[in-house]
């Protein structure tokens, strides 16, 4: 499955933020987010809005070096007024998507990763918002769905991120080795949405394939994506794990960022 277009990533930023806003509207903003237990639902929403504004500042200034978070004018709502938080989230997403559309995908700007471009940030902010919408939905106990294309690309981007952090010396990701072991991700509802992650002595690689592996994770694509992002437990009855479940647990423990 291929990457999405730049415009589609921009669409996902605003659409997912709208879905996040709908999820938290009327919810207990003081509730602890089970998948990010250091945050309340309000703090999760503030994190998303601040991320959008930080990237927006990188785009606005065409920064070639990291922009310190404290230099970003965020105007976060200081009260607990849900309406103020809702409007603030909407504004931040809209402005960032607008800046991304105006820049296009090929402008060179600073990023923390392998691709210093506006296109990198469009993709990153789309998936950042997709995954944190899942956090909000789990907290508020509401439904959650993602279209097949962005769900698959969220998995693909996460593989790229883990490979990158391993390449720059992350100690946990450095342990993702071991020749002869493999993980098969198999979405049962989307043809072709399959990944084979193969471990070697020098790390891991992945490709799209339907092959026998040391462990297989099977289920709907959205649920596969949620497990892979540690938003759904692999022992959930929504997915099926076949083979060496400890290898999947090992991956989920070591495939981290930040």
From TrEMBL:
Pfam families in UniProt: MDMPI_C, MDMPI_N
Coiled coil: none
InterPro entries: DinB/YfiT-like, Maleyloyr_isom, MDMPI_C-term_domain, MDMPI_metal-binding
Domain Mycothiol-dependent maleylpyruvate isomerase metal-binding: 11-137
Top-level lineage group: Bacteria
Domain MDMPI C-terminal, residue spans: 149-249
Cited PANTHER family: CONSERVED PROTEIN
Protein name, per record: Maleylpyruvate isomerase family mycothiol-dependent enzyme
Organism: Streptomyces gelaticus
Organism taxonomic ancestry: Bacteria, Bacillati, Actinomycetota, Actinomycetes, Kitasatosporales
